[in-house]
Write a structure and sequence with these properties.
The protein is mainly alpha-helical and 404 residues long. It has helices spanning 6-33, 42-53, 70-86, 89-102, 128-135, 138-153, 174-191, 197-211, 244-257, 268-283, 308-323, 330-346, 376-381, 393-403, and strands at 171-173, 222-224, 347-349, 355-357, 360-361, 384-385. The protein is 51% helix and 4% strand.
Length: 404
């Protein structure tokens, strides 16, 4: 047997490292060059397109470095669900690659500060449940427990609702229900014997009570319990307009929380009723194209536009609501009509089969600096982007529900 010297091992290590590097580069180049077949289902066409543009998950949205982020978490959640549906591990591995880039071996989360009390920071935690089950890597369990600790001390309105962020005191936004409630429900179900479902239901009850518009049946984007914000109605505390994506967040939160709420829980029927109520209201504003406008009730008013992410979220909630038996079957037709509108009006296809989602509102909120006043003019003035991450995860989730 040959007696290897240290320099031989060093040389072999260098050669192996170079080969690994070369193979990684080659794999990326092959991925970029690959043609995405139009015969694949829409969910996989979108996922493969994302992977082609962003070989590393954190590169979505042209990010220059990785970060713990609610939008990336939403996209990775859709990849986990796609992996389950297709039994193809490449999608799960993509989500795992993201998690490994933001959670160190000790379970510490990159750029996360519990004391910020930002409800958005909970959302990406949804991907950790399956990662922990699949890998048994304790970093994911540690991160899960960290996020659960935030909810234990997260500041609340006097009526018991989670503030959207510490920097937005006494405010509940529809967005926040999706960011926090499904994680809270899954954690409670899997680790705490479902002990907190009354509190989870309370989050929806508070938003329904304080943001519902009796005239339209829609929900205003936010509510300020203190009524001190300039955007807040001085009598009701509500923001002045309906934003489709915020209502979409609320509806997705409902159908996802119901996955974990026990069938005999007394609050379950209440949440299903909320879903039916908001679905009925949203259906009234579906455009003939199948899509919905950025400002939900304003139709083709000057400046308003058919927006991708809100439309995708409505389609997802309608389709899942029917699939789970929460909504009448008629909503499945509306979901198909909506998805058909998305693929015909908002999807573009490159010669190599890569697909892009257009007309995605990049971001919208209230308050802050520069100040966002919640006016109609504000919502239509925010940037509109192609392939913005808000429009990626919900597209895959909607496609998966309809493929059932």
């Amino acid at each position: 047997m040959r007696n290897y010297k240290k320099r031989d091992f060093f040389a072999i290590a260098i050669v192996c490292a170079l080969l690994f590097s070369y193979n990684s580069i080659l794999a990326q180049e092959n991925s970029k060059a690959a043609v995405i077949s139009k015969d694949l289902k829409w969910s996989e066409r979108m996922a493969l397109s994302i992977m082609k543009r962003a070989p590393k998950p954190w590169q979505i949205d042209n990010n220059e470095k990785t970060k713990w982020d609610y939008k990336l978490g939403l996209a990775m959640l859709s990849f986990e669900k796609l992996s389950k549906k297709t039994n193809n591990p490449i999608y799960f591995d993509y989500a795992k690659q993201y998690a490994e880039s933001v959670i160190n071996p000790s379970g510490e989360i990159l750029n996360y500060k519990l004391e910020d009390y930002n409800i958005d920071n909970i959302n990406a935690g949804k991907i950790l449940f399956d990662l922990y089950k699949d890998t048994k890597d304790n970093r994911y369990l540690t991160a899960l427990k960290t996020l659960r600790e935030q909810l234990k001390t997260h500041p609340r309105t006097n009526s018991g609702g989670f503030w959207h962020k510490k920097i937005y005191p006494y405010q509940m936004w529809l967005d926040g229900l999706y960011m926090g409630a499904p994680f809270y429900a899954q954690y409670s179900s899997e680790f705490e014997n479902g002990k907190d479902f009354d509190d989870i239901a309370k989050q929806f009850e508070q938003v329904h009570l304080h943001t519902l518009d009796q005239k339209t049946g829609l929900l205003f984007h936010a509510w300020d319990e203190s009524k001190k914000m300039d955007w807040a109605n001085k009598e009701t505390g509500t923001s002045p307009n309906f934003w489709s994506r915020s209502i979409g967040w609320y509806m997705m939160a409902l159908v996802d929380v119901l996955d974990y709420m026990p069938k005999d829980h007394p609050k379950r029927k209440e949440l299903i009723q909320y879903l039916n109520d908001i679905s009925k209201a949203v259906a009234k504003y579906q455009d003939t194209s199948g899509l919905w406008y950025q400002v939900t009730d304003a139709g083709s008013k000057k400046g308003n536009y058919l927006e991708a992410s809100g439309s995708e979220m409505f389609v997802y909630a309608f389709a899942k609501g029917v699939n789970k038996g929460y909504l009448p079957k008629s909503y499945k037709k509306l979901a198909f009509k909506g998805f058909d509108g998305i693929t015909k009006k908002l999807i573009t296809v490159d010669p190599d089969g890569e697909i892009h989602i257009t007309q995605v509102c990049a971001s919208a909120g209230l308050g802050g600096n520069p100040y966002r006043d919640g006016s109609y003019e504000y919502y239509i003035s925010e940037k509109i982007k192609v392939d913005n991450s808000h429009g990626l995860g919900p597209f895959i989730l909607a496609a998966l529900e309809l493929e059932k």
